[in-house]
Write a structure and sequence with these properties.
single chain; 207 residues; 2 domains; five-stranded mixed sheet; 10 helices; globular
């Protein structure tokens, strides 16, 4: 019941997530490492997932939260980045991703026991902390279907995450910079994007 309430808040449901789930045509469980698939066949399958999702406008337009369908180029880059020994379903776990806001993470974390859901708890940071905070929920019909990602952030964390994305993401900075910026944010030293840029300059210069 808690799952239903949580999803319905954003215009989602188990039925909708199931309808948006794509079953691989490769007759292999996605709970296999990348090297266990023929590269061309797997990437063709991934491209077909993206094409399928691009044609789900009727379903997606009725959902209240932001969503993003990963581009073929970005998906192929992930393959190259994680080859050879990463589970395929973990590499391609965000071909479709939703973003939602929450007042607290407790309800989201409670879904770790729910069937078809996996929870990635980043409320205290990633294993290699880059400042990001949130909880990612992954819905997966079974290991022959590609997962769907649902990102949850509190308003407080979303604001900082947005600044991370704007000013640090894919800029080549070490993760320790994001971690330090998070510390400055929690100290109350960053309240606007201008503050973020100023503090970032100081952090990068070693001040």
């Amino acid at each position: 019941m808690e799952t239903v309430r949580l999803l319905e808040k954003d215009g989602l449901s188990i039925e909708t997530l199931t309808a948006l789930s794509y079953k691989t045509t490769l007759d292999k469980s996605l709970k296999r490492n990348l090297h266990q698939f023929d590269k061309d066949s797997l990437l063709k399958d991934v491209d077909e997932v993206i094409s399928f999702l691009d044609n789900q406008g009727d379903l997606l337009e009725n959902i209240a939260i932001d969503y993003r369908i990963k581009s073929e180029q970005s998906a192929h880059h992930k393959y190259d980045r994680y080859y050879p020994d990463t589970l395929t379903e973990k590499v391609f776990n965000d071909l479709l991703g939703f973003r939602s806001l929450c007042d607290s993470y407790s309800d989201i974390l409670a879904l770790s026991e729910e069937m078809n859901f996996r929870v990635a708890d980043m409320t205290k940071g990633k294993s290699n902390d880059d400042g990001y905070r949130g909880v990612h929920l992954y819905f997966q019909v079974d290991h022959y279907h590609y997962p769907i990602e649902l990102q949850y952030n509190t308003y407080y964390d979303r604001q900082f995450n947005n600044w991370l994305h704007s000013f640090l993401y894919k800029k080549g900075y070490d993760n320790s910079i994001g971690k330090r910026m998070r510390q400055e944010y929690e100290l109350g030293n960053i309240k606007t994007d201008i503050d973020f840029e100023e503090v970032l300059k100081n952090v990068l210069s070693g001040c």
